[in-house]
Amino acid sequence: MRPPKSSASSSTARKPSPLRKDNRNPVRNADNDRKEAALLGLAFDNQDGQVRISRGKNFLLLGGNRESHSLMQETALKINEHLDKHDKRLEDLSLSELRDLCRRVTEKLR
Question: Which of 18, 70, 83, 107 is the most exposed place for a label (fewest CB within 10 A)?
């Protein structure tokens, strides 16, 4: 059995992690001012029992049947191709720019 901790001991006080700005914020990266973004694709139309998971440079795709998962993959890849072509990162896009890009990509894939 351990002896009870003394409340007077300051050497056992928990110090904030050096990787966190404070104890409430999750760890983002070493440069706390840098934004990070990723695309998350979810599809729930799977009925064949297969678990489909795809990960890429800035995306994670989960679920779907063969067709819907393939469409999510193509969409994510085309978005990344567009970003690379214009020397941008996903983090650089505003929400409206991302929405427009997704709309253009999905219209081309149909």
Answer: 18
Q: Do residues 62 and 43 touch, judged by C-beta distance below 8 A? A: yes
How many residues are recorded in the chain? 110
Name the burial class of residue 76, with classes exposed (0-12), middle (13-18) and buried (19+) by CB atoms within 10 angstroms of its CB.
Answer: buried
Tell me the domain boundaries of the chain: 39-109
Amino acid 98 reads L
Could you count the other beta carbons within 10 Å of the beta carbon of residue 83? 18
Q: What is the pLDDT along the chain (110 residues), one digit of tens a residue?
A: 555 554 444 445 554 544 444 444 444 555 566 789 999 999 999 999 999 999 999 999 999 999 999 999 999 999 999 999 999 999 999 999 999 999 999 999 88
